[in-house]
Design a protein that fits this description.
four-stranded mixed sheet, 40% helix, 11% strand, RNase_H-like_dom_plant, Nucleotidyltransferase, domain 5
Length: 197
Amino acid sequence: MGITPPNPLAGDDKIDELWKIPRKFQKPQRIRLFIWMVLKDPLLTNVNHTRRGLGDNSACGICDHNFEDFLHVIRDCSTTKAIWAQVPWSIDEVFKSSLCLAKQFASVQKPKSGGVIHDHNGKWILGFNRYLGMCLVLDAELWAIYDGLDLTLDQGHDKVLINTNSMEVVWAIQDMHSKDSNSTLIRRIRQLLAKID
């Protein structure tokens, strides 16, 4: 049994379109590379070794799962799961709820902010986003924090961990004497933070 080549009468080759995604995707290079790797499956996993005639065992050498493919290596293997468990959103002895902000950077065309709210075990509770119009990256970060805090408090949580990769945002929120301290949005964030233990 084989796969027939695309028929020109059937329209565009849909698989060929998949390979264009990483090039068109306007995100950092590491994200485009990851998408390419998912589509291309270049890792020499045991499944790929077997497929290329370089071996005869497709099982995972660590956990003995039947198929060691790309997804198994990055997500499903017991060792990989143990590594993912080390990610600091699972600090349940300290925080009842954690807020992990995964904002989208403001772009000229469609600036948005958003985030993801997890519980103390890292389990997804909800995601959110907001269309902002023209704004700075700093503003997008601040809106993500404001919306995340507001939603978290509405859900009844009073312990929050906020993750951001912008020290400028952290300084703007913490420094009462900065030039940004008169910002209404920063004042509203501080008011929400005052409601949290």
